Amino acid sequence: MTHGIRALCSALALVLWAGPALAHFGMVIPSQDVVTDKDKAKVGLVVSFSHPMEGNGMDMAKPKEFGVVDGGKKADLLAALKPAKVMDHAAWTAEYAFKRPGVGIFYVVPEPYFEPAEDKFIEHLTKVVVPAFGEEEGWDEPVGLAAEIVPLTRPFGNYVGNVFTGKVLVDGKPAPGVTVEVEYYNKDKAYEAPNEYMTTQAVKTDANGVFSYAVPFAGWWGFAALTDAPETIEKDGAAKKVERGAVLWAKFLEPKRKKK
Ligand SMILES: [Cu+2]
After folding, report:
1. Residues with Cβ within 5 Å of ion ligand 1?
2. Looking at the predicted structure, is the pLDDT value of residue 19 above 60?
3. CA torsion angle for 23, 105, 46, 160 (degrees, to 10)?
4. 216: left (phi > 0), else alpha (psi -120 to 50), else beta?
5. Which of the four pLDDT bands, split at 50, 70 and 90, describes residue 187?
6. pLDDT tens-digit profile of 123-172?
């Protein structure tokens, strides 16, 4: 959920202030969006919990799960995670080498993070899909997470302006009426939102759990479908709600112009 910019995911949010919204996103950003070159078959993955448009980081505990489904086979990559810094905060990195043609669906299940500004826990189950060596079968397969976005648009090899469509599943079933927050990874802070509503955009899922978004400019875009987990987590003797986000990242590119 978005929250006031002054909150910055801290207790300072007790100061009432209906300010600009910015949203936290689980992030898994690969060093390359597709693998085409045998000599560059090793993909670096950066895992964080951040505010991607504003470029504000948050410390992320070591995830509960981190893995890849490659060619339909699940591989646990948790042991490959190394501590790193993203936006000056604790994050994680790993490398994965594609050995054969396949589609790798990388996924992260984080430790729930307590957000004082919202008095609830947040966990973003986050995915990114990287195809290797011309293979593209399997990009539409669910990983089987408690909540996840299953792409209906192939989540790689897309141009800017393409409409991205996905289906939100909660416990494997389509989730209607769910808000999906959309944010750009403003990595080098090249962009600025013209007004506070444009840091995070929002669309909703229809009766079949399907949402669409037309991508306006090039780069990595995150889609975070926000659901309420059925369970609560106890903190300081009180049962706290858990926001369960299903997040998917995809890169959209400008075409190259041929030199004449
Ligand atoms: Cu936040």
Report:
1. 9, 24
2. no
3. -60
4. alpha
5. very high
6. 999 999 999 999 999 999 999 999 999 999 999 999 999 999 999 999 99
Confidence of residue 33 (pLDDT cuts 50, 70, 90): very high
Calculate the alpha carbon distances from 184 to 2, 54, 83, 192 in Å: 14, 9, 24, 11
> Number of C-alpha atoms within 13 angstroms, CB side, residue 112?
18
Q: Give 4 Cα–ligand 1 centroid separation in angstroms.
A: 9
pTM above 0.90, yes or no: yes
CA of 63 to the centre of ligand 1 (A): 17
Read off the pLDDT of residues 41-71 as tens digits, 9 standing for 90 and up. Answer: 999 999 999 999 999 999 999 999 999 999 8
In the chain, the amino acid numbered 237 is: G
CB 54 within 8 A of CB 7: no
| Pairwise CA distance, residues 167 & 173, whole Å | 10
Burial 165-182 (b: 16+ CB within 10 A, else e): ebbbbbeeebbeebbbbb
CA of 3 to the centre of ligand 1 (A): 7
Q: How far is ligand 1, taken at its centre, from the CA of residue 55, in Å?
A: 11
What is d(CA 243, CA 114) in angstroms, rounded to the nearest whole number?
A: 10
Interval between CA 17 and ligand 1 midpoint (Å): 15
3-class SS letters over 3-14: EECCCCCCHHHH
Number of H helices, E strands in the chain: 0, 22
Structure tokens given for 68:
């890849």
**Residue located via tokens 């990287």:** 130
